[in-house]
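W.,

You were right to be curious about this one. When I first looked at the sequence I had no strong expectations either way, so I just let the prediction run and decided to look at it fresh. Below is the sequence, 102 residues in total, followed by the output.
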Amino acid sequence: MDNRETTCSGPAVALAFLGGAMAGMVAGLLLAPKPGEETRRALKGYGRKAEEEVLEKAKEARAALDRAIERGEHFLAEKTTDVEAAVKAGGESLKEKNRQML
């Protein structure tokens, strides 16, 4: 058995959402016994609702991306400080060894 964990990327989820929305609209058109004008109004409403949901998900994704960038910048700053301290300590150690050899 394969125990790999699978995850979906953000774009894949958005594409699946849009595909599902389109399939639902097509099914609604084919199965709805409403007159044309009423169907068009309903489609406009569904379209507006889908647009609002996509915009909301995009805002959430942007906020998550901003948080990830902020965490990355913080991590990078910490590691830069650690590397600078290690380089300085290594330089001091080399100077001390050179003094001892002389």
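Here's what jumped out at me. Residues 10-101 form one domain. And, maybe more interesting for your project: Residues 37 and 65 are 42 Å apart (CA to CA).

Coffee later to discuss?

I.
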